[in-house]
Amino acid sequence: MDFIPHDEKTIAEMLNIIGVTNIEDLFKDIPKDLIINGLNLPEGLSEPDVLKNLQELGKKNKIYSDSFLGAGCYFHYIPSLVDFVISRSEFYTSYTPYQAEASQGYLQAIYEYQSAISRLTQMDVANASMYDGSTALAESAIMASIITGKNQVIVLEGVHPEYVEVVKTYCWGQKIALKIVPVEKLEDELNQEIAAVLFQSPNFFGDIEDVLILAKNIKKKSPKCLVIQCMTDPTCLGILKPPGETKVDIFVAEGQSFGISPSFGGPGLGIFTAKREFLRKIPGRLVGKTKEINGEREGFLLTLQAREQHIRREKASSNICTNQALCSLSALVYLVSLGRTGLREVATQNIQKAHYVKNKLKEIPGYEILNTKPTYNEFIVKCPNIDSLIQECKKLNLLPPLPLSKYYPERKDVALVCVTELNSQESIEKFIKALELANSNEEGKV
Hints:
CATH topology of the largest domain: Aspartate Aminotransferase, domain 2
Order of helices and strands: HHEHHHEHEHEHEHEEEEEHEEHEEEH
Largest sheet: 7 strands, mixed
CATH superfamily of the largest domain: Type I PLP-dependent aspartate aminotransferase-like (Major domain)
CATH architecture of the largest domain: 3-Layer(aba) Sandwich
Number of strands: 15
Number of helices: 12
Strand order of the largest sheet: 2-8-7-6-5-3-4
Helix content: 25-40%
Number of domains: 2
Distance between the termini: 59 Å
CATH class of the largest domain: Alpha Beta
């Protein structure tokens, strides 16, 4: 965007209008020992020199030909239509649609997004989106505590470790006790004081849980406890049973896989859905459709917002003050572009290609698949030496899988491998070659 600097005269006029003598007066509430006296910055450059400098910096980026890294941020095909639509100025320059009469276009786009997500998940209601998947999960824990009047939640092992940290932070602020429990010990931990059980499926390790049985077992032991499911890659909904058919009370997900580039890890898109009975407790925004009082024309508006900007602070269920409008539009265009059959094809390719790689791995000595349940597009494998595998992947211009020791120090030489529809036969063969080379390197040391 263009930047037009203010001249001294304009600055003086603005300061005079607001009643201060200089810019420093605007920051007088900040303690003096916290104010930085000057920055050690280089001299300014001309525009051609700035552009040249940026190009040189850009050359330092490593662009891999293919990726086998997932762990919450995924490389999926993005139809060209997505970038075309979201690049239109009426979308990418739009801000908060508070003034309904001036924001009908964007309000309709958000409404259509909500409708698409509700149909995809088979949940009764979806909100206008949250910051990302982790904050959506954290907000769901607070929402469950408000609904049930209980202040204890259980998080099942297998939820993304970064999501767990965000949930811990939110719960700490709301004085909600949180306990991490393995699935096999869940029944022993359930009681009438639990507000919700939070779990991920497919989980961080790629395992697909039997959500229906899990939900039934939770409700049987603790009827008032809410069942909350999260996902980091909801493209699996093209082939897996939707949460609305599995007795889930609240479903949240990271929507980055729906037409949003991984970039440098963001931005994301927090998908948030729930049963109809919890409609008035849902955090964030909801866009509704209405009609004129004296007419038949339809219009869109923000409605039922249970946040402190719209109702009394003590009654607010959330203080989230925005939604990821451009990202939610990307998700909407992505889903419309693919349609039901397209999303099913994406999910099918993800599961088939991942299982092909998994089976190939079993044939290479020194590697062991650690998953005992069905998986989607990710799985964990014990390697002879993960550092050697990472090195060989980089030599072949492949973005290597995640070393699990990053989050679980005890899981040394264990990799979280991700395969999506973008992994061609050629890239898969290169990855298999990297696995074989890494293994032969270890055998050579013996």
